[in-house]
Amino acid sequence: MRNVFRSPHYGDDILIQMDVIGFGSLLIVMLIGLFSGLIMGQQMARALRTYGAIGQIGYVVSVALIRELGPVLVALLVAGRNASGIASELGSMKVTEQIDAMRALGTDPIQKLVTPRLIATAVTLPLLTIIADFLGLVGGYIIAHFQFAVPFSQYWVPAYQNLAYADVAEGTVKPFAFAIIIALVGCFYGMRTTGGTEGVGRATTRAVVVSSIWIFVTTYFIGAIFINMR
Amino acid sequence: MSEPEILRFENVSLRFEDTPALDQVSFRMIPGETVIIYGAAGSGKTTLLKTALGLLKPDSGRIYVFGEDVTNFTEPQWFPLRARMGILFQEGGLFDSMTIAENVAYPLLNSVAARASNQRGEVEEKVRQALRFVDLEQTLDKFPSELSGGMRRRVGIARAIVTEPRLVLYDSPTAGLDPITAYTIISLILKERDTLNASALLVTHRFQDGHLMAKFRYNPSSGQIEAASQNGGNAARTRFFVMNQGRLVFEGSLAELAAAKDPYVKKFAK
Ligand SMILES: Nc1ncnc2c1ncn2[C@@H]1O[C@H](COP(=O)(O)OP(=O)(O)OP(=O)(O)O)[C@@H](O)[C@H]1O
Ligand SMILES: [Mg+2]
Known about the structure:
The complex is a heterodimer. Chain A is mainly α. Chain A has helices spanning 11-50, 57-95, 98-104, 109-148, 152-161, 165-191, 196-229. Chain A has one domain (2-229). The radius of gyration of chain A is 20 Å and the shape is elongated. Chain A starts with 10 loop residues before the first helix and ends with a helix. Chain B folds into 2 domains: 7-84 and 165-266, Rossmann fold; 96-164, no CATH class. The chains are: A mainly alpha, B alpha/beta. The interface between A and B is medium-sized, with 13 and 25 residues. Adenosine-5'-triphosphate binds next to strand 2 and helix 1 of chain B.
């Protein structure tokens, strides 16, 4: 982590990576956010109506989305897109000796390749998660309003007011942790690729599998910490 | 120390899991010398070059570069030394996200030692000069993927020599090239050696490459290579190494190589 603060900074590299990770994933993150809200609205509304609690739908959707579904779904998506992208890019650089060339020609590949990807992911993943969360709430509202005639304020006010500080904190901490997992796992498997183009394929697959597993394990443990905090 | 050394290995060994890539390798190289390294695939030639550059750390033994004991050097300590060395990688190692000009400028803009002594305008001139040297000045704004294999090799040479290093390491510069292009590449390496008097360590599979390096010289007035006179010049200071399974099994002149009895060594001498 010391590298994050050490000059020279590779500012352009960070911007390029933010573009790749952030804008590259924006549309699909929006779609996933919206549809997870629609799906959750649909399923929750049925259950809630059975107990005559349809008025709680805004609250239920917002807690589930913000604490868990938003961060995890977006992280899994970004892991599929970017942990693999990072691993295959760095892996190809490794097997064509570009990483050796960097070291031979005077740059530290950790600083030039890993740090910008880490920073870019840590900045963009939380932003993408916020966007997905918001669109998910909109999706929940569409179902609540058009299928179950829940009025605007009855959906949005509890969705907003009942959120505890811990809910928001959990929803913010998770994307940061996932971002670190995605970037580091991708870089790790990329940088230690061996065995030509075949090796790049293996590194890519492994990066996605391993980062996805870590996302699930981590979300459980962060969740456990926050539940004990309430 | 009688003569200033440029590179010395003392009983250097390095293993990858269970393959010994270098096994008790010892040799020394003095300035102006050319060393040709022959050896079958997997005999440790690339590993030897990368160890000389500090990209791989030996398990045991000592390494001296430009007279300094670099055995326990850290990465930052290596940077100023690497700035005085040039390398052409076997797999090219050209950055494919950068143009040819950016690739060749890279060592000028990034190596610690070079960065301090280069002004922007100077960098551009040096890049042009290096590309002119390999006859590729017209490709400045192209990307590596737009060039042929032989052209990429030449760009690699331009990048390796742009800082005018004292020691240049060439890893299989002619591998996979047709005889004409291979000849062009070796001519460039000869030209670099004879115009800058740099030392060179050249890994190759081709017997002809070593023969050219040991018997020919670059003539600056004609711009061609020609047979060198028997006594003297850099051509005469060419030595041959043969590697087998990580061990240095032969060290000597072209004549000694031709007279070798060992069946493995003999294969590289005809
Ligand atoms: N990164 C690595 N991981 C594991 N083994 C390696 C690695 N690099 C090289 N080796 C092994 O070390 C030995 C020497 O490899 P090296 O690349 O030095 O051979 P070489 O003489 O350059 O061969 P070639 O002529 O094919 O380039 C080989 O057995 C190779 O499989
Ligand atoms: Mg090799």
